[in-house]
Amino acid sequence: MTLVIIVTWASFVSHLNLAAVGFLQLLVVLGVAIKAGFWHATVVSLLANLCLNYFFTPPIFSFSVPNPQDWVALTVFETTALVVSRLSTQARAQAARATSTHEEMERLYEFSRRLLVLDRQGTPEPGILAVIQQLFRIESGVLFHAVNAKAASTGTDTELDAETRAAFVADKNSQDADTLTYIRVLRLGVRAVGSIGLRGARLTPVTADAIASLTAIALERANSFERETQTEAERQSEQLRTTVLDALAHEYKTPLTVLRTAATGLIEMGGLSSVQLELVTLIDSETERLNTLTTRLLKTSRLDSADVRIRPERIEIDKLLQALTSVAREQPPKRDICLEGRSEGVCIRADRELVSIAIMQFLDNARKYSDPASTIVVRLESLATTVRISVSSAGPPIPAEERERIFERFYRGSGSSHRAAGTGIGLSITKKVAAIHQGRVWVVSNDHSGNTFFLEMPRLSREQ
């Protein structure tokens, strides 16, 4: 209003005409509309119109009956005030939104940066919530991690904890503008890995979604680091076990050689009674068996080395199976072993000692874990490009969830510990031998046919 009076006084003193004064008053209305809005500009336009009527419309110094010029001026003033105020309001709103968006982007960037430098030792959930609380000024927050089924929280809002867990179960996002609550399900692709609840800060839905996405990535990164650490620990533990087994096998070789030499010497000296001869012969055979097992352990311990070398040769698989089944029949306790599917002339190219170890492991397992009165069946099948060897025995079936794990090193099935002693490394050896020769191993087990272990390897053609 003061500005209208000043412009009116200056224009009157300067003897400006009505058109010039009207233009100056229009500028005043325009400025008020931009700064203060429509209603302030309306009051100013009415005052400006009265000043024009009183000071510049004849007769001056009196309010004449409004003429068309007054109505035109008032209409122009009001229209200008309305349009400009609306445009100004929209511009200010857009500027405020742009500023708010820029600030949220800066906070999200800082959030992602801090997630990258979080301490990877221990659980990540409390650290993530602390960063969110510091950057986004939340009053309380809950982070539920489905991997360990635990929730970390900041604040004492037990209701938010229950709502966050329920959101994961229902797989549904929610928000409440009145209580400033935002609950989001954490996803990696289409897989839900947890949920997060935030309360007490005014966030946009886009920002809440971005926080949830970055949190899910941070949790997965922490899980990956934990898996990597666990894998490295298992690798080192496996390497240590292999080293120990290798050292023990070397240490056993010397006393076993001495024992066998002494037993052989007693037999050759003669003069033993039949009972004594039988006992010494038993000592000699069992010492030889221990020596063979120790040699096998030395051989298999080297399968874990990256530079393992094999000595491949052409092997007629039918003859090899005949020799191995003959040896297995004589080992105590003696069992009935039947060889089926004879295929003369079928050959493979492989390390004879390693393949023999793998097949003998199948036979040893069948002898230890099958019914004593049953027959062990060894079958040879010649396929188009492979040779398949199977060892079938009657015995309790292997649970479906263990049929892959029994080929892991040191793993023993739930039903094997009470039937026979073992270390859990035999089947892992057969798997390594198969892998070295581009083959594979597997087991088929059911209540009717018992357990059948398979070894399949590439075969040589007739011309090779």
Tell me the name of the CATH class of the largest domain: Alpha Beta
CATH superfamily of the largest domain: Histidine kinase-like ATPase, C-terminal domain
**CATH level-two architecture of the largest domain:** 2-Layer Sandwich
Beta strand count: 12
Shape: rod-shaped
Largest β-sheet summary: 5 strands, antiparallel
C-alpha Rg (nearest Å): 45 Å
Number of helices: 11
Sequence stretches where pLDDT stays below 50 over 5 or more residues: none
Q: Work out the count of structural domains.
A: 4
Order of helices and strands: HHHHHEEHEEEHHEHEEHEEHEE
Average pLDDT taken over every residue? 79
Level of helix content? 55-70%
Spatial strand sequence of the major β-sheet: 2-1-5-4-3
**SSE class:** alpha+beta
Structure summary:
The chain is an alpha+beta fold. It is 56% helix and 16% strand.
What does this structure look like?
Helix 3 packs antiparallel against helix 4 (68-116) and helix 4 (68-116) runs parallel beside helix 7. The chain has 4 domains: 2-99, no CATH class; 103-228, GAF domain (Beta-Lactamase, 2-Layer Sandwich), CATH 3.30.450.40; 230-304, Helix Hairpins (Orthogonal Bundle); 312-458, Heat Shock Protein 90. It has helices at 2-13, 18-36, 38-56, 68-116, 125-136, 158-170, 205-269, 274-301, 317-330, 352-369, 426-436; strands at 140-145, 150-154, 174-176, 181-188, 191-199, 312-316, 337-340, 347-351, 376-382, 386-393, 440-446, 450-458. The mean pLDDT is 79. The strands form 3 sheets. Strands 2-1-5-4-3 form a 5-stranded antiparallel β-sheet, sandwiched between helices. A 5-stranded mixed β-sheet has the order 7-9-10-12-11, covered by helices on one side. The chain has a two-stranded antiparallel ribbon with strand order 6-8. It has 11 helices and 12 strands. The longest helix is centred in the middle third of the chain and has 65 residues, at 205-269. With 464 residues, it is of the alpha+beta class. It is rod-shaped and about 155 Å long.
